[in-house]
Write a structure and sequence with these properties.
By secondary structure, the chain is mostly helical. The protein is built from two helices and no strands. It is found in: Chromosome; Nucleus.
């Protein structure tokens, strides 16, 4: 996340240059939007757990609990 700030550009979801189908750009845009909403929700919940514990650093367990709260249990990180 370094250097991107709010509303950063997701380079991993950019359509390849010279794409043969124009419709693919719409798919990439939709994917980018869904990914952004998902990450915003997970990060919001993780930060809420962090603030409740009176910490300033988000831990891996905060993210695990945030995912579990949203019904996406992640195994292998303890807890």
């Amino acid at each position: 996340m370094s250097g991107r700030g709010k509303g950063g550009h997701y380079e991993a979801c950019d359509p390849p240059l010279g794409s043969p189908w124009r419709g693919e750009a719409l798919i990439y845009e939709e994917t980018r939007g869904v990914l952004k909403v998902f990450l915003e929700n997970v990060i919001r919940d993780a930060v809420t757990y962090t603030e409740h514990a009176k910490r300033k650093t988000v831990t891996a367990m905060d993210v695990v609990y945030a995912l579990k709260r949203q019904g996406r249990t992640l195994y292998g990180f303890g807890g």
